[in-house]
Amino acid sequence: MMDRESGLDQVPWFALRSIRSWALWKVRPLGLVFILTVELFAPVLTAVALSRDDLSATYLIRVGVLLAAAIAYGEACDRIERFRRFLGDGSVRTNHLSVWTVAAILVVPAGLAAALVMAIYAHVLLVGRRGRTLRPHRMLFTAAAATVATWAAAEGAEFVAGRVVPGVAAHSALPTVVALLLFLPLDALIVSTGAFLATRPARFRAVLPNREALGFEGATEVIGVVTAQLLLRTPWLLPVSFGFMVVLHRASLVKQLQLAACTDAKTALLNASAWRERASAAVASAAREGRRVAVMVIDLDYFKRVNDTHGHLVGDLVLREVGRTLKRETRASDLVGRFGGEEFVVLVDGRASVAHALDMATRIRERISTMDLPAQLRVTATIGLAHCVPASADGLDQVLEVADAALYGGKQAGRDRVHAAAV
């Protein structure tokens, strides 16, 4: 076997060995077909579009400037992007490259814009290989999706400029709006569809980009529009885009660091310390106002058997699915966390009635028992529910004790049930 430390595995001749080891080949057949189809379609589409484009010197210079800017920014902010990938939870998310993509959509023909995207992502792959911070098969699919979305958005802008409002430039107001409305949804749809077909979660919503990712992408698109205008009118001010992107990129990293500090890595719920801190504040507020609070402690029944029989990878998958279920069945104002192991906690918004809390607990128990899991696996949960007026501002432990006692009662009564207690 080739010595990994010898450096021979870095030689291009040995690249096939690395490709054969990609996790891509283990995804579901339908997902694999979709991913490979998109990856093959993107370069063919780009080549056909380039054969029809006006490859004038002006357009080539614009592409060269944008490519140089993208490479320079990628090298300068490589460390920030490594942190962002390290802190990622594996979900579909967008990235900072849209600033150059959107600018290209507005200032060069569709084929050149698509070719620029492929060149930018080729540099990203090289940087990622150098730092070993990304999975090549994922980045290839992301690049292909962005290429297709870029071509479609550029064609849409050119169509509006040429036929809907003849005589206007592709970077004018209406074509720009059309391009933005096409690029982000199409890009997200292609990537999310690939992720869904490859992993088949219970709901398509589970693979969609979250609000933070969409907000970041939207901001980069706005900067992309500004970049296009600067390139067309005052190219010497193009470095201004760098300043905007650095501020946005660093702000995004700070946000991710804050989320990572209070988030459980396996389930993306609040971790125990973050949940206790926020729940303590909610209980203190309820105690001052004389309001009742509802807390449920959720324990997966016989979870150790899952790990012993199916392995810890399946056990982790179950925990993630439980986390998604809890997010779906609770409201944004409820506090949901993982206390450790197979135990979860929910503090229901203090304005909820006893009946509402009991209905929520029952619904959660039913959803957990019907989760879509591999190998005909079925998992159940016992839930202890406490609903009371806290005796003092530091009464969280009292409420948890009541909920824990209710949980114990539910397990004694046969498990897979909701057991409520009130004080």
Question: What does this protein look like?
Answer:
Keywords: Membrane, Transmembrane, Transmembrane helix. This is GGDEF domain-containing protein. It comes from Jatrophihabitans cynanchi. With 423 residues, the chain is of the alpha+beta class. It contains 15 helices and five strands. The chain has a five-stranded mixed β-sheet with strand order 2-3-1-4-5, with helices on both faces. Helix 4 packs parallel to helix 10 (239-262), helix 9 packs antiparallel against helix 10 (239-262) and helix 12 packs across helix 13 (312-329). The chain starts with 14 loop residues before the first helix and ends with a strand. The model is unreliable at 1-16 (pLDDT under 50).
List the topology elements.
Elements: H1 15-20, H2 29-52, H3 57-76, H4 78-87, H5 98-107, H6 110-131, H7 136-164, H8 173-199, H9 211-233, H10 239-262, H11 272-289, E1 293-300, H12 303-310, H13 312-329, E2 335-340, E3 343-348, H14 354-369, E4 381-388, H15 396-412, E5 418-422
Parallel strand pairs: 4-5
Antiparallel strand pairs: 1-3, 1-4, 2-3
Average of the residue pLDDT scores: 82
| Total count of helical runs of at least 4 residues | 15
Spans with pLDDT under 50 lasting ≥5 residues? 1-16
Sheet with most strands: strand arrangement: 2-3-1-4-5
Number of domains: 2
Distance N terminus to C terminus? 67 Å
User: What proportion strand?
Assistant: 5-15%
Helix proportion: 55-70%
Helical/strand content category: alpha+beta
Oligomer designation: single chain
Largest sheet: 5 strands, mixed
> Which radius of gyration do the C-alpha atoms yield?
26 Å
Shape: elongated
Strand tally: 5
Pfam families: GGDEF
Domain GGDEF: 291-423
InterPro entries: Diguanylate_Cyclase (IPR050469), GGDEF_dom (IPR000160), Nucleotide_cyclase (IPR029787), Rev_trsase/Diguanyl_cyclase (IPR043128)
Keywords: Membrane, Transmembrane, Transmembrane helix
